[in-house]
Amino acid sequence: MAADLLATSEHAVSIPTSVTVLFGLLLAAMIVALALEEKLHAKKSIIAGLFAGICLFLGAVFHLLPFESVVVGSSAAPEQATDGQVVHVGGHEIQMPVFIPAVDWSVIAIIVGSSLFVDVASRSGLFTWIALRVTKSTGGDPVWLLIAYGMMTVVFSALLNNVTAMIIVGSLTVVSLRKLERPELMLSFLLIEGLLTNIGGLLTLISSVPNIIVGGAAGITFLEFTEHAAPFVLLATVATLAMGCWLFGIRRLRDAEERKQAAELIAGFDENDGIESRGFFWFSAVMLVLFVGLIATTNQLPFISDLQMGFVALAMAGIMLVRYKSAVDQFYRGLDWDLLFFFMALFVVINVMEHAGVLNAIGMLLARVIDVGETAGTASILIASAGFSSVTDNIPLAAMLAKILTSLGTASDSPLWWSVVFGANLGGNLTPIGSASTLVAVTIMHKHGLPISFAGFIRHALPFAALHIVLATAYVLLFLSH
After folding, report:
1. CA–CA separation, 350 vs 24, rounded Å?
2. Are 386 and 360 in contact (CB under 8 A)?
3. Other C-beta atoms within 10 Å of 35: how many?
4. Which residues 6+ apart lie within 8 Å of 246 measured at CB?
5. Global pTM?
6. CA quadruple 266, 268, 274, 278: dihedral, nearest 10
7. Helix 162-179 vs helix 436-447: angle between axes, to the nearest 10 degrees?
8. What distance in Å separates the CA atoms of residue 335 and residue 30, rounded to the nearest whole number?
């Protein structure tokens, strides 16, 4: 029934099955190529860029892509609406390459703005100061340090966004572990933090786009969402930290001698050493608080809500760069261009896949699973949507499944809604391309001499991802079902 509803949707486009299969194989080939990144001796941006070019060319060959002019500057005219279709008036047409609107420029803007902001603010000594204060509060104990940064990651991901949280917490982590002379823990800390960003993204209705889409379709209020998700977020966070300590051998300082050595090391820390200008330090501190506050409240602020988080990140970075106005090029060179171009290419590939019917085919497959029954369907949808979200964009997938559930008249308290929410978010922990924050975590590892391959990430992350999905499935079936 669900599959029939999807197939007969008014938005469904008739695309030959052979074409959809071809593009599905291209998507699989790109994932394999990324997994073999080290053996191919190629950067992620080159691999994704080549596949983006191939997909665009074939998209043009098979007439899949919308090449019509783009109208800008128009406004909605509700009084002229017919058959529920919104009519736009005014504006003018411009020619725009089809791959430009395919890119999620908000994500790119957030990465660029947040990276520049953190890079400039770190010159003030602010991040070193924060990192050393956190390190001192834990007594140099690795387990307590992991707990402190893990909780900070979850809170920041819930209040800000996954990418910004990973950039800020990752920067603090590197400083702390280097000061403690424990660089061997850096990879494990960064990987665990990357995984926790997607758990923190489950905490509120506005923490991630899939939450907003599914919550809006189901009619779940902000408070209801947090009440239902918070127990799982707490459980998953504790389980992740515990598993991380076990798998990576992160242990507490066990005897008096180790504690004495840590205390002597910490006694030599002076968080004020890196502060060259008190004025710039306090300015950066105020700007950091303002940055966090604006990002957290973007959707509630007049005018800024229209400009979105990307604008906030870039604007705050621009203000910070005024300090080094004659040498801003040094910060531009410090941006991770491989990461940025990889994201752009990946967005293009996923966009073409959507036009080629690949995401629709995935949606139809999941729709058939829903027909199995509520209990089996709930578990299956959560697991399947997590798997697909690990290799495709979880936003159109969540939108498609939300539409299916709405068409079926699914009650707002049905566990099926939560299976989509949990699956779409937690799928990002299966692969390094499953979410922007996990990829940022890998990029930070590479930046600090900790190379980890696509396959290496999956090998380390798979036990965590499996635990998260098992816990989420049990939680939804036991506590969120009728």
Report:
1. 10
2. no
3. 19
4. none
5. 0.82
6. 90
7. 30
8. 25
